[in-house]
Amino acid sequence: MSRARPNSPASRRVSTAARSLLASTALLGAGAAAAADFSIGAGVGADRGRGRCVDSFACDRSDVQWKLFVGRQFSDAFDVQAVVFDAGRFKGGDTTPLGTEFGGSFKVRGVGLTGGWRWALAPSWSVAGRIGVAAVRTRFSYADGGTGAASETTAQPLAGVGIGYAITPAVRLSLDYDVSRFKVHKTHGSLQTLGLAAQYSF
User: Fold this and answer.
1) Distance, C-alpha 46 to centroid of its chain
2) 12 has a pLDDT exceeding 80
3) Which long-range contacts (C-beta less than 8 Å, at least 24 apart) are formed by 93-98?
4) Looking at CB atoms within 10 Å, which of 15, 45, 78, 191 has the fewest?
5) Which of 2, 88, 80, 91 is nearest to 38 (CA)?
6) What is the pLDDT of residues 95-105, one digit of tens each?
7) Can you list the domains of the chain with their CATH numbers?
8) What is the pTM of this model?
């Protein structure tokens, strides 16, 4: 795949859309940047939400996750990414202070900002590490249906590692492993995701 020329109409349309998204999130700063400074991407895979399980309610910790991200490249090795992710739904439970067990489902999604560093392993292969913070929204729906639902948004750490392969200078595929946490009231757990991602730089 050949890269679009910086002054081509297609390149200008993609750059305008990326700048609008960056400005709306207010995460990557303002101002114009040269072509090839930005990237966009998407990923999908499996995840695991490790909350508590109780004997009275079946526990299901696995689901499908997806993420969308935009990035700003500051050097050949360092970049900053804004990411939106949806970790799906997990079944679990907890115990009230009085010792009563309850069960239900956790719906977890979030938006985050990370800084990343990439090391070249071979001409087309690289390994990357990321660390940052995410605003994670957790909604818990009680299994009995009569209690309603509870939701909470908390600041949580967001980190990950990945191994990537550059198909072309502009297109990269990677296998990413990301970790974070979720919490609603006093119930909390870890979130682990593993999936494939595609990234396009322009």
Assistant:
1) 12
2) no
3) 93/51, 93/52, 93/53, 93/54, 93/56, 93/57, 93/59, 93/143, 94/51, 94/52, 94/54, 94/186, 94/187, 95/52, 95/54
4) 78
5) 80
6) 777 777 777 88
7) 9-27+36-201 (2.40.160.20)
8) 0.75
